[in-house]
Please model this.
Amino acid sequence: MNTLLARVLHAILDEQKKQTATLERMAEQQGLLIQALADDQGEDPDAPPMTYMDGSKVT
Model:
C-alpha cells in the first residue's frame, strides 16, 4: 500500500510540475503580447510618416 501511495503522489507531483510549466509559458507569452500591444500605439502603418528618420518633423 505504501508503494502504491508513493506512486500516486509522484504522478500527482509530475502533473503539477507540467501544469506549472504551462502556466509559466502562458504568463511569459501574455507579457510579450502586452509589450507588443504597448509598442504598437495604434499608428496606421499605411499613413504617411510624421517624422523623418532623424526625428525631425515632416512639414
Residues 32 and 38 are 10 Å apart (CA to CA).
